[in-house]
Amino acid sequence: MSKLKVGVIGCGNISTIYLTNCQHFQSLEIYAVSDLDMDKARAKAEEFSVPKAYTVEELLADEAIDIVLNLTIPAVHGEVSLQALEAGKHVYVEKPLAISLEDGRKVAETAKAKGLKVGGAPDTFLGGGIQTCIKLVEDGWIGRPVAANAFFMSSGVEAWHPNPDFFYQVGGGPMFDMGPYYLTALITMMGTVKRVTGSASTSFEERETPTGRKIPVAIPTHIAGVLDFESGAVASLVTSFDSWGNNLPRIEIYGETGTLSVPDPNTFGGPVKFRRKEEKEFHDVPLTHGYTENSRGIGLADMAESIIEDRPHRANSDLTFHVLEIMHGIHIASNEGRHYPLEGTVQRPELLDMHKKF
């Protein structure tokens, strides 16, 4: 298979796993890295033997680069993706697609107008754990899905993250940080969401790091949402930075004939558990697909292969925009005391071949 050249913009914490994994995908060549801090860019280039360490402007101007991997902070995801599209590059962006709905819509529309592709994280749904769950749903193990529960509960990030401030600014919070994993998993198993509602609160006005530094909180930190699917199924989603501990499932799907226990959607593996309606216990289900370790970048690899093979890619802009709109919709519904209707529909991504190798 031919390789597409990738230029990485943003050399922060998340870049390490992408640069590690993307060296092994047959459709990708990491050709250049860039960052506002050129020392960071040069260090990453040296660490991973990347040929070029560029300024952002140099990277966008290099006609050899086919795809921009946008690993910048969320606040500039939309801006950087648009710059890359205007430069004639395909784009794969870390989650979320953009901060605002307007920017997310503009990214998706600009790509389609220019005949370019946009993809985006999370790609954890392409891992063995959730691919197995999708297959079980498609094969009818639980019958028609009628409901679901999903929970992300934590005490926040300030105790461990080296740069926690942006998690508490607009575009951060538990919904925009972790919601994409949960929503993407739910959509890939259950289809289009037609409307949402919810309630959101900011429990603490500031957070404190282990060194005593205060961080002002400008976003909701506990969000409870309700999702009505086009199929008729209803799901509850709670994301929180205000929990010191819990004993809740990550995701459970309830069907006409059984229940499916879905693994942490921020991981690629299992366990996957299943219980039939006539049984009293859950049973472990062997995983049907590979990529069960941290395989961040397989969404980018799938997009690169789709460009080469001229086919749809799975972690696409329709999916990432649908997720973005759901997250905004829950916040809007909370602020305005109403249901928020979603735009259009989204096609569930095609299941991977069980023996697929990127």
CATH class of the largest domain: Alpha Beta
Low-confidence stretches: none
Shape call: globular
Number of spatially distinct domains: 2
Q: Which strand order does the major sheet show?
A: 16-15-14-13-7-12-11-8-17
Number of strands: 17
Sheet of most strands: 9 strands, mixed
Order of helix and strand elements from N to C terminus: EHEHEHEHEHEHEHEEEEEEEEEHHE
What Rg do the Cα atoms give? 20 Å
Q: What is the helix content? A: 25-40%
- What gap, in angstroms, lies between the N and C termini? 10 Å
Q: Give the overall pLDDT as a whole number.
A: 97
CATH architecture identity of the largest domain: 2-Layer Sandwich
Instruction: Work out the helix count.
Output: 9
CATH topology of the largest domain, what is it called?
Dihydrodipicolinate Reductase, domain 2
Proportion of strand residues: 15-25%
Alpha-beta classification:
alpha/beta
The name of the CATH superfamily of the largest domain reads Dihydrodipicolinate Reductase, domain 2
Plain-language structure description:
By secondary structure, this protein is α/β, with parallel strands linked by helices. The chain has two domains: 4-120, NAD(P)-binding Rossmann-like Domain (Rossmann fold, 3-Layer(aba) Sandwich), CATH 3.40.50; 125-289 and 322-341, Dihydrodipicolinate Reductase, domain 2, CATH 3.30.360.10. It has nine helices and 17 strands. The chain has helices at 15-22, 38-47, 56-61, 77-86, 101-114, 128-138, 173-190, 298-309, 317-336, and strands at 4-9, 28-34, 52-54, 67-70, 90-93, 118-120, 145-153, 193-201, 206-208, 214-216, 222-229, 234-240, 251-255, 258-262, 273-276, 283-284, 340-341. The strands form three sheets. The chain has a nine-stranded mixed sheet, covered by helices on one side. Strands 3-2-1-4-5-6 form a six-stranded parallel sheet, with helices on both faces. Strand 4, helix 4 (77-86) and strand 5 form a beta-alpha-beta unit. The longest helix is centred in the last third of the chain and has 20 residues, at 317-336. The protein is globular, with a radius of gyration of 20 Å. 51% of the residues are buried.
